[in-house]
């Protein structure tokens, strides 16, 4: 299955979304709760692809909303393993905002999510067990 570093590279996970009005609030910007939902989802996919085990969210770190994300833009969520413990791993997520009709791209939201690998009894189990 490769080294930890190779698994971290291979499990980097990216999702693009168009910010349509159905996802925005009354300011015409992406609703914060929707951003959190998408971040938890991409972090979950990344942790799952990294460990190839059942994982559950145990905590979130600080989430920084640096800029509002207007309707009519594109966003890319990028999740990457930040650190690895015995049964847990921490995933860093950035949301990049892109204009549709120019190359302008900037980081607008960042945060971390921690996951624990669980066994069939829902108890913590080693996050990796088949390292080369
Ligand atoms: C994908 C989803 O939608 S999941 C839904 C939301 N999440 C859930 O429902 C999870 C509910 N929580 C639980 O079931 C339990 O807390 C479990 C199974 C995750 C952990 O059980 P616990 O007995 O509390 O875990 P334990 O104390 O042994 O710690 C396990 C790991 O979590 C880490 N951990 C514990 N608390 C935290 C925390 N607040 N933040 C970050 N890591 C933590 C520990 O350091 C340990 O990591 P390590 O082995 O890498 O050093």
UniProtKB/TrEMBL annotation:
<dbReference type="InterPro" id="IPR029069">
    <property type="entry name" value="HotDog_dom_sf"/>
</dbReference>
<comment type="similarity">
    <text>Belongs to the acyl coenzyme A hydrolase family.</text>
</comment>
<feature type="domain" description="HotDog ACOT-type">
    <location>
        <begin position="9"/>
        <end position="121"/>
    </location>
</feature>
<dbReference type="InterPro" id="IPR040170">
    <property type="entry name" value="Cytosol_ACT"/>
</dbReference>
<dbReference type="InterPro" id="IPR033120">
    <property type="entry name" value="HOTDOG_ACOT"/>
</dbReference>
<keyword id="KW-0378">Hydrolase</keyword>
<dbReference type="Pfam" id="PF03061">
    <property type="entry name" value="4HBT"/>
</dbReference>
<dbReference type="InterPro" id="IPR006683">
    <property type="entry name" value="Thioestr_dom"/>
</dbReference>
<protein>
    <submittedName>
        <fullName>Acyl-CoA thioesterase</fullName>
    </submittedName>
</protein>
């Amino acid at each position: 299955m490769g080294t930890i570093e190779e698994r971290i590279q291979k499990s980097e996970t990216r999702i693009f979304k168009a910010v349509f009005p159905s996802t925005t609030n009354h300011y015409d910007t992406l609703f914060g709760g929707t951003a959190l939902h998408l971040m938890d989802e991409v972090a979950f996919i990344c942790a799952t692809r990294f460990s190839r085990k059942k994982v559950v969210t145990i905590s979130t770190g600080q989430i920084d909303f640096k800029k509002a994300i207007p309707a009519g833009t594109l966003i890319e969520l990028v999740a990457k393993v930040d650190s690895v413990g015995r049964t847990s791993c921490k995933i860093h997520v950035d949301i990049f905002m892109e204009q549709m009709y120019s190359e302008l791209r900037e980081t607008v939201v960042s945060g971390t999510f921690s996951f624990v690998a669980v066994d069939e009894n829902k108890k913590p189990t080693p996050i990796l067990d088949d390292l080369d």
